[in-house]
Specification:
By secondary structure, the chain is an alpha+beta fold. It has helices at 122-125, 151-156, 161-170, 188-200, 229-244, 257-272, 279-293, 339-354, 428-443, 445-449; strands at 5-11, 21-26, 33-34, 39-44, 49-53, 58-63, 70-71, 76-83, 247-255, 299-301, 308-310, 316-318, 320-322, 325-327, 330-331, 368-372, 391-395, 399-405, 408-422. Helix content is 26%, strand content 22%. The longest helix has 16 residues, at 229-244. The chain binds oxidized coenzyme A (CAO).
Length: 453
């Protein structure tokens, strides 16, 4: 070691009350040349991710911790062979060496003024001429939990450490981010697209106005029940769609009198084959025809929001009411199944959903969703789009209504349809054409039972 060199020990700074914090990434290698403040390792507590920066410029002599291990304040992270006077500004462990992502790193050039301009290239050390001196921040603990992040959902999200870190830096809840990588893995670009979407949202992406916190117990007895696991997962996704997608709902009615007559005729025969031929199977068939006629309803915006991705497959998701909450199994290649096969798969998938036995693959890849409340009741509702899909069909309970035809009122069985659509992609005229086509298709019962080519 030359006279100008010294060994600097970089330690984990004071992290408040956190102990045994996970080392999720080691960012440097032994022998690597680093600048002062270069991040050495990334730590993740339950609440935040933070880098531990080097307190000196030089060469990494030794690493004392490994990815997957845990550390506490004061633990040795690395020994850095510092070069010359520029190096040894090692701060004590309690100094503000680590800032939670999103927090300020200000004040860490405090030694620059004492450095020799001869020893150190000006470009790498001198403060920018116009930059005013920054006050040193107080020692920083990891950020408090962000109210925007659903921590259990965040930890379950399918994303690697660097994407998690990136998301935390931006305060993005990965629970609401749709992954475009392999097997739905969330990528950096997905996080960026999510942020762009949030910024483009009405209100400029600023924090949403908060709902007032009310002490309900002040008004009478109360009982607190935790949301189910499915509610905790689906809630942020529904919320993301609600706040990101401009929804409009188009209402219509389909005359299914003939369809119901035909269904009654075919029902028993189907049951002998173990198939329950419910109205939903016919509605799926009708939607397939409508999606083929109107491909923009079977599409999604890409991550940039500038292109529409038209899907050449028709995978229909359908909302299923289960004891654990709402689930959306996906009937794949619905365009290749006849009404009996659709009915059989609807029965199988909704049975698996109710038994809590759906696989992840059975809930992925949907290109359009149907939410049928017809078996329960109601006249109309405004379903939330299963984003990034661009439309969802709500179906309510059919009932007999007087229809004026050929100079007289006749009783017809009318099925209420509620189509919510993403107005960025679909305009009102297209939506009205879609529901008109759908209603016409449902009225043509025989065509719905024909074999699929
Ligand atoms: N109008 C009148 N009756 C209807 C109907 C409609 N639109 N749709 C179904 N029915 C009848 C069926 O004919 C059946 O009667 P029978 O037993 O006499 O034949 C009965 O209602 C029950 O049907 P089902 O529920 O067994 O079958 P389905 O195919 O209609 O629905 C499923 C399957 C999984 C969609 C349904 O069980 C379900 O879970 N629906 C709730 C969906 C939901 O929660 N949506 C809201 C999502 S947003 O929170």
């Amino acid at each position: 070691m030359s006279a100008a060199e010294s060994l600097v020990e970089v330690r984990v700074p004071d992290m408040g009350n956190f102990k045994d914090v996970a080392v999720i990434d080691v960012l440097v290698k032994v022998g690597e040349r680093i600048e002062a403040e270069a991040p050495l390792v990334t730590l993740e507590t339950e609440k935040a991710t933070m880098d531990v920066p080097s307190t000196a410029a030089g060469v990494v002599e030794k690493l004392h911790i490994a990815k997957g291990g845990t550390v506490s304040a004061g633990d040795l992270v690395a020994t850095v062979r510092s070069s010359g006077a520029a190096a040894a500004q090692a701060a004590p462990p309690s100094a503000p060496a680590a800032a939670p992502h999103g927090g300020t790193q200000a004040g860490q050039d405090s030694g620059a003024g004492q450095r020799s301009g001869k020893d150190v290239p000006a470009a790498s050390t001198a403060p920018a001429p116009a930059a005013p001196p920054q006050p040193a921040p107080a020692a920083q603990a990891p950020s408090p939990p962000s109210p925007l992040i659903d921590e259990p959902g965040f930890s379950r999200a399918h994303a690697g450490p660097s994407v998690r870190k990136f998301a935390r830096e931006l305060g993005v809840d990965l629970t609401g981010v749709t992954g475009s990588g392999m097997k739905g893995r969330i990528t950096h670009d997905d996080v960026k697209a999510f942020v762009k979407g949030a910024l483009a949202a009405p209100g400029g992406g600023g924090a949403l106005p908060a709902v007032p916190v009310v002490d309900f117990a002040a008004f009478g007895p109360v009982e607190s029940q935790p949301l189910t696991r499915i509610q905790r997962i689906s809630g942020p996704r529904l919320h993301a769609s609600w706040v990101n997608v401009p929804h409009v709902t188009q209402f219509d009615e389909a005359d299914i009198t003939d369809l119901e007559t035909l269904r009654m005729k075919l029902k028993d025969g189907a049951l002998e084959r173990g198939i329950k031929l419910t109205p939903l199977a016919f509605i799926v068939r009708a939607c397939v025809k409508a999606l083929q006629a109107f491909p923009t309803f079977n599409a999604s915006l890409d991550a940039t929001g500038a292109n529409l991705v038209l899907k050449k497959y028709v995978h229909i998701g359908f909302a299923a009411d289960t004891p654990n909450g709402l689930m959306v199994p996906v009937l794949r290649d619905a365009d290749r199944q006849d009404v009996y096969e659709v009915a059989r798969q609807l029965g199988e998938l909704s049975g698996a959903a109710r038994a809590g036995k759906l696989t992840a693959a059975q809930m992925q890849g949907g290109s359009f969703t149907i939410s049928s409340l017809g078996g329960i009741g109601g006249t109309a509702f405004t379903p939330i789009i299963n984003a990034p899909e661009v439309a969802i069909l709500g179906v309510s309970r059919s009932s007999y209504k007087p229809l004026y035809r050929d100079g007289q009122f006749v009783p017809r069985l009318m099925l209420p349809l509620s189509l919510s659509y993403d107005h960025r992609v679909i305009d009102g005229a297209a939506a009205a054409r879609f529901t008109t086509f759908l209603a016409g298709t449902l009225a043509d019962a025989q065509a719905l039972v024909e074999a699929v080519p």
